[in-house]
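Hi R.,

Here's the chain you asked about this morning:
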Amino acid sequence: PAVEMVEIGAGGGSIATVDSMHRINVGPESAGAEPGPACYGLGGKTATVTDADVWLGRVDPKYFAGGAVQLLPNKSCEVLASNIGELLGVDDIAAACMVVEVVNENMANAARVHTVERGKDMTGRVIIAFGGAAPLHGARLAEKLGLSRIVVPTGAGVGSAIGFLRAPISYEVVRSRFTRLNDFDLAGVNDMLADMHAEAEGVVRLGVPKGKLSQSRTADMRYVGQGHEISVLVPIRTLTPTDISLLQESFDESYSRQYGRTIPGVDVEIVSWTVTVSHSTELPALAPEPKQSKTPPP
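And the predicted structure, written out as tokens:
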């Protein structure tokens, strides 16, 4: 199972370039960890978001990775000047500001598009900034999106790794089967869902021989002729004619909530089915905060 994501290539290692129309582009190419940003001192020759942040003083070069890595700000200055500034006729500071602003706008625009495509309202949303560089850009991103609250979790730099370690063991099976609600093959669908559950359970049991498992089912539904679907929960039982009506009601409710209306007189179809089997293990305790022998740098 996965959380739906929009990946736009906006990270600390994302490379900034100037195109033939004198526009700054950031990503999706990345310098990675090696050679990485120029400030790593590993031979990187491209300007990255991290280089821009370092040269603007937003990252302490002596306390990167808790002081384990000593950054070289002058290397950042060199690549920002040669790869960006000289091509646009601006100094290194202006070049760094431009790179930061472009990557911030890329993230903000992706959020706007993702929200609009799903009929959502961004008002009152909260930005959760995790990842090595996200907290540095959270405030400006919130400003661009008109949001007032940002959450920076403990251990934000390794947030994805923490999520991986704390996620339940799960397996998801997806099958395509076009089914109109007005011509619903109950026996065929029930057999298919049972097979999908058996397949998913068989995989999860490889890692969890014993213990209680949970199951969830969804159907991707749409009006006939549409190109986008809405996921609707499917009852976890042998489906009956009553459940067909429940699926119709759930679809109408979800569609109306997302788009503000339904479309009477148009048939509804199911495009694909998903069965997920999970085992929720006891979450490991979080490590205590290390004691500080001295006041950390600002």
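The first helix runs from residue 49 to 55.

Let me know if you need anything else.
M.
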